[in-house]
Specification:
Elements: E1 2-9, E2 17-23, E3 30-39, H1 42-48, E4 58-59, E5 63-71, E6 83-86, H2 96-99, E7 117-118, E8 125-126, E9 136-140, E10 144-146, H3 153-156, H4 162-173, E11 182-185, H5 189-200, E12 206-210, H6 213-221, E13 226-229, H7 235-246, E14 253-258, H8 263-272, E15 273-281, H9 296-301, E16 305-308, H10 316-328, E17 340-342, H11 347-356, E18 362-365
Helix pairs in contact: 4-5, 7-8
The protein binds adenosine-5-diphosphoribose and zinc ion (ZN) (2 copies).
Length: 366
């Protein structure tokens, strides 16, 4: 067991605290990782606001990269010294989804068996089974994905959650490719990543939609060919108009990615896709949200696919090393997602800035 500094949310809505926690030595199937960088994600804020569940105290942080310090006795997939990105879907290999080859749908992803605790022994609930606003964290070895060790931790760590969700929503779930038009509604960290992923895949046009001009400017840097301020104009009509400029007769985009997580924006996505197009919902709705007044005939009559994207339908072992290589080659600008590097005692202030929408990602450097 060892003691390290970590950011903990002790109760609903309370400011987070920097405290000392106990990290057990890794047992079978586990690894202890020395965290180098961890992004601040909306999900961390959701945990601390009690929006996920009531299992306080939470050990926050889950978009991280670091170096494996120690592994349990039977661990073979990673070794001390390996540079890894942490993932929150370590697949089991045995459930029905895994057995039929749909590993990205694994129904039984796993985390460390032992619990990290507060100094008094109170068990911590690590955010998404990771808990990486900590100098060191205990995870399942399968949560560690080895990547090129020369990559910048602050940038590639973001692949551990939001950026992977966005890129994967485009290239995995939406099957975006050359010759397809894409619209992305909501250009925060996730939507901006969906734009970067669409650009990587060669799609055109790539239409960014947001209500915040700053986000639209950033989207353009990341590969959007057109931007639409939906606080000023009807985004559905604009997407249709822009798609038809490139593809004569198009009545919308081939793939529309919803990265806000609200019924009204999902409905825009639904009506902005071309016939037989695909809608990808990567924004996460709250349980109370409903899509009102959607004629079933429109669902039938427009054909195509209405999909949701969990974690960008990624397979960390397949996607993280590939995306890190593209980053290293200069083909995927992950640095653009790192708005600021902050200290471990700055998480509460970063939540505040996130609330105001001025950042794509604040990244804690350890
Ligand atoms: N129309 C268009 N854009 C909108 C609208 C709207 N009605 N409302 C909000 N937005 C934009 C915001 O301006 C912001 O740029 O959506 C973006 C949301 O981005 P972030 O708040 O940075 O959130 P992000 O981290 O990108 O996550 C987006 O995906 O993983 C989920 O839980 C996450 O539901 C959230 C979504
Ligand atoms: Zn499984
Ligand atoms: Zn996240």
């Amino acid at each position: 067991m060892q003691q390290v500094k970590a950011v903990v949310a002790k109760g609903k809505g309370l400011p987070v605290e920097l405290v000392t926690i106990n990290v057990p030595d890794p047992g079978p199937g586990e690894a202890v990782v020395k965290v180098q960088a961890c992004g601040v994600c909306h999900t961390d804020l959701h945990y601390r606001e009690g929006g996920i569940n009531d299992d306080f105290p939470f050990l926050l942080g889950h978009e991280a990269a670091g170096v494996v310090e120690a592994v349990g006795p039977d661990v073979t997939e990673v070794a001390p010294g390996d540079f890894v990105i942490l993932n929150w879907r370590a697949v089991c290999g045995e459930c029905r989804a895994c057995r039929r080859g749909d590993l990205h749908y694994c129904f039984n992803t796993h985390n460390a068996t032992q619990r990290m605790t507060l100094e008094d022994g109170t068990e911590l609930s690590p955010a998404l089974g990771i808990g990486a606003f900590a100098e060191k964290t205990l995870v399942a070895a399968g949560q560690c994905t080895k990547v090129d060790p020369s990559a910048r931790p602050a940038a590639v760590g973001l692949l551990g959650c939001g950026v992977m969700a966005g890129i994967g929503a485009a290239i995995n779930t939406g099957a975006v490719t050359r010759g397809r038009s894409v619209a992305v509604i909501g250009c925060g960290g996730v939507g901006a990543a969906a734009i970067a992923g669409s650009a990587l895949a060669g799609a055109s046009p790539i239409i960014a939609v947001d209500i915040d001009p700053q986000k639209l400017a950033k989207a353009r840097e990341l590969g959007a060919t057109h931007t639409v301020d939906s606080s000023q104009v009807d985004p559905v009509a604009e997407i249709k108009r822009i798609a038809a400029e490139t593809y004569e007769g198009a009545d919308g985009a081939d793939v529309v990615i919803e990265a806000v997580g609200r019924p009204e924006t999902w409905k825009q996505a639904f009506y902005a896709r071309d016939l037989a197009g695909t809608v990808v919902l990567v924004g996460v709705p709250t349980p109370d949200m409903k899509v009102p007044d959607l004629p079933l005939i429109d669902v039938f009559g427009r054909g195509g696919a209405l999909k949701s994207s969990w974690y960008g339908d990624c397979l960390p072992s397949r996607d993280f090393p590939m995306l890190v290589d593209l980053y290293q080659q200069g083909r995927l600008d992950l640095d653009a997602f790192v708005t600021e590097e902050i200290g471990i005692d700055d998480v509460e202030a970063a939540f505040e800035r996130m609330h105001h929408g001025d950042v794509l990602r604040s990244v804690v450097i350890l």
